[in-house]
Amino acid sequence: MYSVSIYGAGQLGTAVARLLAANPRVQVSGPYGRSDRLTALRSGADVVVIATTTRLDDVAADVELAVERGSNVLVSAEEAAFPFMVDENTAGRIDALARAKEVSVAGVGVNPGLIFDALVLTMLGAAPRGCRIDVRRAVDISGFGATVLRRIGLGRTEPDFVAAVERGDILGHAGFPQSMMIVADAIGLSIERIDKVLRPVVTPVDIDVPGRFRIAAGESAGVDQVYTSIVDGEPWFTAHFFGHVDLSSLRLEPTDDIDFVFDGALFQSIQLRPGIGAQVGSQNMTANSIERIVAARPGWVTVAELAPAFPAPSASPGD
Predict the structure, then answer these.
(1) What is the pTM of this model?
(2) Which CATH architecture has domain 2-109+280-300?
(3) pLDDT tens-digit profile of 127-156?
């Protein structure tokens, strides 16, 4: 039996709590909101799930507090997937503490956590060295709450969108540099730089996201973003994310595509139809990561070091 404490009472934390409550191998407490932060993080549970926000700076103190109490930690924050590229000092301090406490910390989810990193690494096992990687993802983002949709960049005119990106107020979907670094680090490549293009997808008609968000004609109803990592002066890994609240109006469906190119020719192409849902995918990936974070080496680890995530068997450990 594993004890799990969940901090974050939003959509993700609530769903993970529900999924884990149906698992006889897990005893769940939470989800806890901000007013019960210390209860959640100081629980001393086998695993603390932190499902709150995106940036490393906003979750680092929470992770540290849980680790100090001897808990393994799963973090939904996209920057936590490879925190050393965001803040090497903070990540190194927490990594050292986790090693001393003999617990593990990892960022988990679908993006990052699966499509742009773990799945890519798995498929590279059947590919030659020197492949170029191209991953494309079209996602229905209508299930996100208003706060997340605003952070992604919805409800903005194009000039306002561009200005907000320059200020750092709009992130689009975060985590692509982290995924690229996970893959590069695992196979021993050095990324010179990562170029980013983030564009609004402006709607010509009003769109209502039921109960949460209203987008007027002329405002952004989606984002189109491309990250390109450069290795040895050439593009090596391209990550393309297209998210929209009404894909069907554009005659699109959720899709995930991974291409490997070798010597200028397509070597392998993988297609998932329909693509993995943004919400349900992250919920299941988090809920299915309890045993693998407990089994991981101590310290802050990436998905390249974790066993694959899968639903736990019904019997309790030792049965």
Answers:
(1) 0.94
(2) 3-Layer(aba) Sandwich (3.40)
(3) 999 999 999 999 999 998 888 899 899 999
